[in-house]
Amino acid sequence: MTLAKIIYGSLTGNTEEIADIICEALENLNIEVEIDECTQVDAAEFSNADICVIAAYTYDEGTIPDEMLDLYEDLQELDLSGKVFGVCGSGDTFYEHYATAVDKFEEAFLVAGATKGAEKIKVDLAAEKEDIQQLGSFASQLVAAQQSA
Ligand SMILES: Cc1cc2nc3c(=O)[nH]c(=O)nc-3n(C[C@H](O)[C@H](O)[C@H](O)COP(=O)(O)O)c2cc1C
């Protein structure tokens, strides 16, 4: 059975909710999903998954949150060739560097040799109806990409 691994970082819950939405959408597509908060797991756990997802919020001046830095650095040391990845996260359009942690994690997955299975998704604060639809289609694209790999 196809295994998807979702690792998220969330301070006030918006990104956790995004991760939960993707988890549910993948499960509805009969994918087995493991979902973990970033301080509870190592990046190496992606090595056992077929579909790898990171959901990250963005902190000061467009930076990756401190508690996600190990994940960010370790990810780039892995060989994730043959695996499909997707990145999403919450930010706030009020800030100049909007949700840039999402861009940085996408680059890190590419360094690890993974294949992009869906366009990254940036959610302005909490996910609303339109975002939830987009996240559902993000999940479907990841599954389709994995099945055609
Ligand atoms: C001190 C601080 C700095 C932030 N800096 C940024 C930023 O540079 N870019 C951005 O897009 N969002 C920024 N945000 C907004 C958060 O990314 C946003 O509130 C997000 O929804 C938090 O996700 P969470 O609920 O999963 O913790 C910042 C928030 C705080 C409190």
TrEMBL record:
Source species, domain of life: Bacteria
GO terms, molecular function: electron transfer activity; FMN binding; oxidoreductase activity, acting on NAD(P)H
Occurrences of domain Flavodoxin-like (ranges): 4-143
Coiled coil: none
Cofactor requirements of the protein: FMN
Alphabetical UniProt keywords: Electron transport, Flavoprotein, FMN, Transport
InterPro entries per record: Flav_short, Flavodoxin, Flavodoxin/NO_synth, Flavodoxin_CS, Flavoprotein-like_sf
Biological role: Low-potential electron donor to a number of redox enzymes.
Homology family: Belongs to the flavodoxin family.
UniProt xrefs under PANTHER family: FLAVODOXIN 1 (PTHR42809:SF1), FLAVODOXIN 2 (PTHR42809)
Protein name: Flavodoxin
Organism: Tetragenococcus koreensis
